[in-house]
Amino acid sequence: MSLDLSDAKLAAYLAEIAGRLLLDVRASGLFSPKALGKAGDQTANQFLCHALREQRPDDGLLSEEEKDNADRLAKSRVWIVDPVDGTREYGEERADWAVHVGLAIDGRPAIGAVGLPGMDGVGGGRGLVLRSDQPIPLPSAPDRLRMVVSRTRPAAEAIEVAAHLGAELVPMGSAGAKAMAIILGQADIYLHSGGQYEWDSMAPVAVALAHGLHCSRIDGSPLVYNQADVYLPDLLICRPEHADMVLKLI
Length: 250
What we know:
Layout: H1 7-27, H2 33-55, E1 60-63, E2 77-85, H3 87-91, E3 98-105, E4 108-120, E5 126-131, E6 146-150, H4 156-165, E7 168-172, H5 175-183, E8 189-192, H6 198-210, E9 214-216, E10 235-238, H7 240-249
Parallel strand pairs: 1-2, 6-7, 6-8
Antiparallel strand pairs: 2-3, 3-4, 4-5, 8-10, 9-10
Helix pairs in contact: 1-2, 5-6
């Protein structure tokens, strides 16, 4: 059965349902933290990939948890998903993990949804989905900027740039949670240079761009997706007014 959903609505719907599944798997109490991460990854991946192949059979698909299929390289439209971004945080029952569902069109991050199932949603309910088709107003930046960094292995470049800016470091888990922290007013700059893959950033970048944020490689070049080599090691996401300053420091 094919639902009559736009690409953006489909992305958000899939991110929401995958998040619920992940919370249910975690709440079962059947897994140790290490086994929980694997069980959650595989459960969410099966759901997302089967659903996308059912709803968008002509599109390409790239998932962290699936064997790559080179057929995607010949397609204009390619869905790029990360079933659990921040597996460690998910297994530790933290809130800073995410579900990424994005659509790249001709290599451009066109549509995205980032589910934050562990965070409180609207009205106090569990779960929040930020999406490219429903941007929300950005909070004002504080006088002292905040730079979100990995809570376990912060990049040396980010720490040095933060020191030059006098910015506060905000440790956080997944890449999706870090990128969405800027939209939610929890941080102002996300600078990463420690290695990532396309599924780590595609959906968050699509959502960030729709909210008017600057998104690029750390040399200022654009982020391009659906490449043969899916390694995309660095990125900068920040408010536009801070981009030139940060790029010059890098």
